[in-house]
């Protein structure tokens, strides 16, 4: 199936379904463009076959790259399945040129059966290595997530309550507030329906194009913002960081065990410091031939946590919890940041962990030698001209612009100081001294 790169995933899935075809795997959110999700290596969850990344199903691309005046200022390049540059172009970060068309390998339309099982996490380190091999679309959340249309008034009220809890609430109050939401989400089947209207129980069986993504809020009518997506910038609803990183499958059990030990040191920090309504989303990614894809089978971890709207960043409750987890994944376990979901500090030195980075940079030099499609930030991430994507300065660690090395990088006037991690002591995080 050949589509323009600006087509939204929702449109591709619906058009493919109407033709009796399925995109084998995709991200869970349907509001992404095809060009954007490919540029950032977006994926679902799978270790079978070709895996869960959409770029694994790319069999052709048309890309427009800069050229001198003698060539009309542009070159249209057609990359077939066997073209030597396709592995660089299918995860490009947007720095090679304009992707105008993409051809994807599809499958005949198929059905899936979905069941969500709730269980304890005592054996999670062992299960994280096995789950992806056992179930074709298997993923896990430490606590479940949902995505559905919500009244704008409710979104604004929820954010206001969250801000009050951040300012004046206790850990117990913050954790109790989200448990109510979790119960409601579980009762509603996390957005799944058995007949297109209501949820009556598991398993939920449906065609792939009806079940593989969520995003009903982008299909809602124009109603004067009486309803909206939770993150719609036009309403003062939820506001979060989303950090995602992957750890090699062989190292994931040890990483999860370390996360559990960190949680057990201070359970309130784990509950109040991360958004447990969304949970820690755990997905599987197969090793890829793409230059900026995963070099080996990996487990992806998605974290969502509160972000202040205050200019310059305001410390959130237990800011150190998520930061320690992220640094542990990237530094202790050699993890890789998700290209589309992270803060500056996560990308520092990351390109050196991609074995085929040199090949990608050679294609970049050939396609765009003058760097027309590059920026200072992309050059820093790719280590093209040296430098670092980290921005060091006052309160930089609060916004994730740096890893702190000095108290001024945190918020010392509010008691947040740069300290070693509680479990991974090589981490440097902004911690506040609390009464015991």
UniProtKB/TrEMBL annotation:
<dbReference type="GO" id="GO:0016020">
    <property type="term" value="C:membrane"/>
</dbReference>
<keyword id="KW-0560">Oxidoreductase</keyword>
<dbReference type="GO" id="GO:0016491">
    <property type="term" value="F:oxidoreductase activity"/>
</dbReference>
<dbReference type="InterPro" id="IPR055154">
    <property type="entry name" value="GULLO2-like_C"/>
</dbReference>
<dbReference type="InterPro" id="IPR016169">
    <property type="entry name" value="FAD-bd_PCMH_sub2"/>
</dbReference>
<comment type="similarity">
    <text>Belongs to the oxygen-dependent FAD-linked oxidoreductase family.</text>
</comment>
<dbReference type="GO" id="GO:0019853">
    <property type="term" value="P:L-ascorbic acid biosynthetic process"/>
</dbReference>
<dbReference type="InterPro" id="IPR016166">
    <property type="entry name" value="FAD-bd_PCMH"/>
</dbReference>
<comment type="pathway">
    <text>Cofactor biosynthesis; L-ascorbate biosynthesis.</text>
</comment>
<dbReference type="InterPro" id="IPR016171">
    <property type="entry name" value="Vanillyl_alc_oxidase_C-sub2"/>
</dbReference>
<protein>
    <recommendedName>
        <fullName>FAD-binding PCMH-type domain-containing protein</fullName>
    </recommendedName>
</protein>
<dbReference type="InterPro" id="IPR007173">
    <property type="entry name" value="ALO_C"/>
</dbReference>
<dbReference type="Pfam" id="PF04030">
    <property type="entry name" value="ALO"/>
</dbReference>
<dbReference type="GO" id="GO:0071949">
    <property type="term" value="F:FAD binding"/>
</dbReference>
<dbReference type="GO" id="GO:0003885">
    <property type="term" value="F:D-arabinono-1,4-lactone oxidase activity"/>
</dbReference>
<dbReference type="Pfam" id="PF22906">
    <property type="entry name" value="GULLO2-like_3rd"/>
</dbReference>
<dbReference type="InterPro" id="IPR036318">
    <property type="entry name" value="FAD-bd_PCMH-like_sf"/>
</dbReference>
<dbReference type="InterPro" id="IPR050432">
    <property type="entry name" value="FAD-linked_Oxidoreductases_BP"/>
</dbReference>
<feature type="domain" description="FAD-binding PCMH-type">
    <location>
        <begin position="1"/>
        <end position="109"/>
    </location>
</feature>
């Amino acid at each position: 199936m050949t589509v323009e790169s600006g087509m939204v995933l929702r449109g591709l899935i619906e058009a493919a379904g109407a033709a009796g075809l399925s995109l084998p795997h995709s991200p869970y959110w349907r509001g992404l463009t095809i060009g954007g999700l490919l540029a950032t290596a977006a994926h679902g969850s799978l270790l079978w076959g070709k895996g869960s990344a959409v770029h694994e199903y790319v069999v052709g691309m048309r890309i427009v790259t800069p050229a001198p005046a003698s060539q009309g200022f542009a070159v249209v390049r057609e990359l077939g399945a066997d073209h030597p540059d396709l592995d660089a172009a299918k995860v490009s970060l947007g720095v090679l040129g304009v992707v105008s068309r993409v051809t994807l390998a599809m499958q005949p339309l198929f059905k899936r059966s979905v069941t969500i099982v709730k269980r304890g996490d005592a054996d999670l380190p062992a299960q994280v290595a096995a789950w992806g091999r056992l179930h074709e679309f298997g993923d896990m959340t430490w606590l479940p997530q949902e995505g559905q249309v919500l009244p704008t008034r409710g979104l604004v009220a929820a954010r206001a309550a969250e801000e009050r809890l951040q300012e004046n609430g206790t850990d117990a109050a913050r954790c109790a507030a989200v448990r109510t939401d979790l119960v409601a989400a579980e009762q509603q089947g996390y957005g799944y329906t058995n007949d297109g209207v209501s949820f009556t129980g598991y398993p939920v069986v449906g065609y792939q194009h009806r079940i593989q993504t969520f995003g009903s809020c982008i299909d809602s009518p124009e109603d004067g913002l009486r309803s909206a997506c939770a993150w719609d910038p036009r309403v003062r609803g939820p506001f979060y960081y989303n950090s995602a990183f992957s750890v090699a499958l062989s190292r994931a059990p040890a990483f999860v065990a370390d996360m559990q030990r960190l949680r057990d040191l201070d359970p309130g920090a784990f509950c109040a410091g991360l958004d447990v309504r969304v949970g820690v989303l755990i997905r599987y990614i197969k090793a890829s031939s793409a230059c900026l894809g995963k070099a080996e089978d990996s487990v992806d971890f998605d974290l969502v946590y509160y972000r202040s709207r205050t200019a310059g960043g305001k410390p959130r409750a237990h800011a150190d919890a998520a930061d320690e987890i992220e640094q542990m994944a990237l530094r202790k376990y050699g993890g890789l940041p998700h290209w589309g979901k992270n803060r500056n500090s996560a990308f520092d030195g990351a390109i050196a962990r991609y074995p085929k980075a040199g090949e990608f940079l050679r294609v970049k030099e050939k396609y765009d030698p003058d760097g027309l499609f590059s920026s200072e930030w992309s050059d820093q991430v790719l280590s093209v001209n040296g430098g670092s994507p980290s921005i060091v300065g006052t309160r930089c660690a609060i916004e994730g612009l740096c890893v702190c090395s000095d108290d001024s990088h945190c918020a010392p006037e509010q008691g947040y100081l740069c300290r070693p991690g509680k479990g991974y002591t090589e981490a440097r995080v902004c911690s506040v001294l609390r009464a015991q």
